[in-house]
Amino acid sequence: MERTLLSLGSINADFQVRTHAAPGSTETLLAHNFCRFPGGKAANTAYLGALFGHRSYLFGRVGDDDLAEQALSPLREVGVEVTGVSRAEGQATGVSMIMVPPDGKKQIVLATNANDQWSEAAVDAMQRQIAGISGPACLVVDYEVPAWVVRRAVESARHCDVPVVIDPSFPERVEDDLLGKLLAITPNLAEAEALLGKQLGSLDKVAEAARHFHSLGVRNVCIKLSDGGCVLVSEGQSMHLPAADVDPVDTTGAGDAFTGVLAISLLEGLDILEAASWAVAAANLAVTGYGSQPAYANRHDVKTMAEQRLQRAKRLDV
């Protein structure tokens, strides 16, 4: 039976410069390369859904400008269904300004633009599409769109028994009452700290935080670590999946690769430990190329690395 990945969230045009160093205060640096890429968390997730061979629906907003095509054209090319994307009149498409220094640890400034401009009609249309999905499906949402839009999507999915994965970007927008009964949540370390209001200085503290989210009703908690690994807490297990030894050139979109492939793997019926190993592998491979979507690895390469990551998984003390 055909499976469907539903993605709600940001759709952006990415503008990237590569530099020889990170600039200091008031300093002007010469960049040695400039690139334009498609981007946005939901767009990246939808791209992965199609890349992995599934029906992939994207819900979001773009502006009535030429940047919309920069964001959407590559998605259409891989088969993403973009009828759930509408234009916000008089608004610019979301834009990410990305600086990538030699260590690949990007710095991003995001102008949400059309991502934050939703009409009631656009949300109603999204809910109708979610309600019309047949067969196995999973909804992935991020908070680079308004919280009320996320809430409406999650409510529609739950009404149709579609499991939900939340990527809590912009953690200040996250509404705690939506965390119960989630299939998964995938904060990075900084987002987990913001959600909890405290620093997580050790692996044990990260696992403790993950267990807290699990106690709120989240079935599977994956906290993405800054080195590319993750801490997983689910029913009866607390695990650390270490990162692979890769040479990173650009970390843009690696977290989106993690969330997208985690959702895809769960949709395909993998158990959570296997799914997390696939997610870590996808994120690790993503940092070896520039941009987000252009750097995403195919199923075969992700599978090969995932098998290695699974063998390295270690149980954490409860």
UniProtKB/TrEMBL annotation:
EC number(s) stated in the UniProt entry for this protein: 2.7.1.15
Main EC class the enzyme belongs to: transferase
Residues of the Carbohydrate kinase PfkB domain: 5-294
Entry keyword Protein biosynthesis: no
The entry's keywords: ATP-binding, Carbohydrate metabolism, Kinase, Magnesium, Metal-binding, Nucleotide-binding, Potassium, Transferase
PROSITE patterns: PFKB_KINASES_1
Transmembrane portions of the chain: none
GO terms for biological process, alphabetical: D-ribose metabolic process
InterPro entries in UniProt: Carboh/pur_kinase_PfkB_CS (IPR002173), PfkB_dom (IPR011611), Ribo/fructo_kinase (IPR002139), Ribokinase (IPR011877), Ribokinase-like (IPR029056)
GO molecular function, one term: ATP binding
Family that this chain belongs to: Belongs to the carbohydrate kinase PfkB family.
Name assigned to this protein: Ribokinase
Species name: marine sediment metagenome
